[in-house]
Amino acid sequence: MLFILLLVLALVLGGVGLFVTALRWLLIVALVLFVIGAFTGWRGRSSV
User: Fold this and answer.
1) Over the range 27-37, which residues count as b (16 or more CB within 10 Å of their CB) and which as e?
2) Whole-number percent of the chain with pLDDT over 90
């Protein structure tokens, strides 16, 4: 019984850790895309 409880707990904590890591990468990608979009928009607006 203890083994099953520890296994379930490890799976839940691992899933939470994986979710947090995925969320962090998603935030990094969104930030990079935002910076690229802002830079290209600023460059395009200044050249006109």
Assistant:
1) eeeeeeeeeee
2) 48
Residues 43 and 40: their CA atoms lie apart, in Å, by 5
Query: Cα(34)–Cα(42) distance, rounded to whole angstroms?
Result: 12
- Is a pLDDT exceeding 90 seen at residue 23? yes
Q: 39 to each of 6, 28, 31, 32, 33, how far by Cα in Å?
A: 49, 17, 12, 11, 10
Instruction: Spell out a b/e string for 8-20, using b for 16 or more CB atoms within 10 Å of the CB, else e.
Output: eeeeeeeeeeeee
What is the per-residue pLDDT for 13? 87
